[in-house]
Amino acid sequence: MDASNPLQQLLVRGLGTTSLVAERLRGVTQAWVSSGRLDPAQAATLVDEVLASLRGENPELEKQTERQLDRNLDQLLQELGLARQRELDELRGRIDRLERQQRQQVTNSGYADLPD
Predict the structure, then answer these.
(1) Cα–Cα distance, 49 to 28 (Å, whole number)
(2) What are the structural domain ranges in the chain?
(3) Does the predicted model carry a pTM greater than 0.70?
């Protein structure tokens, strides 16, 4: 491995991390199978799905994870009293429509020379 090539270092570290995750996941699922918390077939399926997801081969699991993250983020922002960007954009659009309606009403009522 070339120590001066950061891309190569990153790739090797990523592969090592993936291998470590796979090893630990297999250990945990085996412990769950031994304790009766998980069926052996479910354990194999779980390991396969997680590893496929790590390799980017499971788009449905990725979509499901993304939806769950979005829900968690929405809940966190709501608890903090903050708005998401799409909510702010929606409010800006509503404000723009209301301002246009108000200008139109002022124009129609003959008070067009009033300041904005």
Answers:
(1) 15
(2) 6-83
(3) no
